[in-house]
Amino acid sequence: MKLAPESRDILRRYRRLINERRAADGLTPLRTEQVIDDLCYFLTCQSAVYLCGQFIRQGEAGR
Prior knowledge:
Elements: H1 5-24, H2 32-44, E1 48-51, E2 54-57
Antiparallel strand pairs: 1-2
């Protein structure tokens, strides 16, 4: 997957924060792929998301 440098930096900061908190709880660190998977799962649980300039309502048929 190709990401913009800014996106990579944001993802790197989130992963670092997540792994610091996981380490404090005695859990193993996550890889970048696992963080992306969890972000994607989180988005599917929302009633609506705003991505790439588009407002997307979940479960909206035919759109």
